[in-house]
Every structure is written in C-alpha cells, then in structure tokens.
Amino acid sequence: MVSLLSVCAPKETLAASTKYVNVSSAVVRSKASTKSSKLGSLKLGKSVKTYGSKNKFYKIKYKGRTAYIAKSSLSSKKVSTKTSKSSSSSKGSQVASYALRFVGNPYRWGGTSLTRGADCSGFIKAVYARFGRSLPHSSSALRRSGKGVSYSKRKAGDIICYRGHVALYIGNNKIVHAANTRRGIIVSKVSYMKVLAVRRIFS
Fold it and tell me: What is the pLDDT of residue 65?
C-alpha cells in the first residue's frame, strides 16, 4: 500500500531571491562555467530572480530555461542606471560594452585575440583596435597612453593601471580584464588591487 504521506509530500523547491545586474552587460550562460555557451545578456539594473547558486554562479530562469549568471554581475541592492544612460552614446561606454562580450574567454600570455586568448594588455589593445585606436601591448606603456585622469573622475572605458597589470573600467566600481590562465577574462571590483593610474583614451 502506498503511503498517503509519500503521495502528498510537496516537491522541494528553492525560494527565489531578487537581485540586480550591476554591470553594463551581464552574460547569461547555459552552465555554471565560463567555458559554457552564452545564451544572451542582461542590462545594468535589470532585476533577476535567483534560485540558489553553484560554484561562482547564480541559477536563474532565462527565456523559459535554466541558466546561470556570474555572482560578480549581480548585487542585492538595485543599481542606479543614471550614469549609464547619460553616457550611453559616449565612446568610453561603447568600449566597455564591447569588452564585456568576451567575458569567459581564455587568457593567453602574449596573446591579443579576444576569442582565442589574450593577456591583460593584449586584451586592452584588441578592444581599442575595434574603435580605431592603436595602443601598445605593454602594461607599463599603457600607463603613459592617452590622458591621465584622477581616480575619482574615472569613467567607463578608462584604462585602470595596477602594478604589472591593466584592466578596463566598466562603471559601478567594476572592471573587465584578462586576469590569468586559471580565470580568463572576468569582471572584478576595481579595488581588487591598488590602483596606480587611470588613463583615458577618448576625451
């Protein structure tokens, strides 16, 4: 005889939690891995319901299917989109949005390919080449490129210079960069290392 309790027992579900996209373009993936296929992207400020997490990703529902989004791309508090909207037509914002397309792609020492692999300066060089600017393939040389601006005046598209490393500022205290062979191209907090300089290519 089948137990009535087993028949009527409710199916276990995870309570949904609402979070918000905190980068200009958050990549949605098919699996909880940067190597998985990209299903699409969500814009800054978009609310997202998460259903638990796996590795460094939140589990979400996207276009009727289970998908994953990096934890670093979401926050529990709603992010203001005023700055993003007011500068959406600027070259710097266009550069930042373009660079975010390659999050999850590999790091390769000496590389300048946005798809097959790039190192930190090679990534910056390749992104800006798309916008007609020829930049050096050297983190130290990039510290002398463009125009220097104060850290408090940083904007999307600016090059953030660290000791032996460079990244691209994308707004909301976030950067996109080719980190290392283990992590590839990722989004991080701008303060993850001490900032030495900020350089602006498009004034």
Answer: 95
Does 161 qualify as catalytic in the annotation?
Answer: no
* Annotation says 120 is catalytic: yes
pLDDT at 14 (0 to 100): 59
Token readout for 34 is 């940067």
Architecture per CATH, 17-75: Roll (2.30)
Task: Tell me whether residue 177 is one of the annotated catalytic residues.
Answer: yes
Name the active-site residue from 8, 137, 161, 165.
Answer: 165
In the set 8, 137, 161, 177, the catalytic residue is: 177
Question: Splitting the chain (203 residues) into consecutive groups of 10 residues, what average pLDDT does each group show?
Answer: 43 71 83 89 89 91 94 78 47 91 92 95 96 95 96 96 97 95 94 96 88
Give me the DSSP letters along 60-106. EEETTEEEEEEGGGEESSPPP-HHHHHTTTSHHHHHHHHHGGGTTPP
Residues of the chain with CATH 3.90.1720.10: 82-200
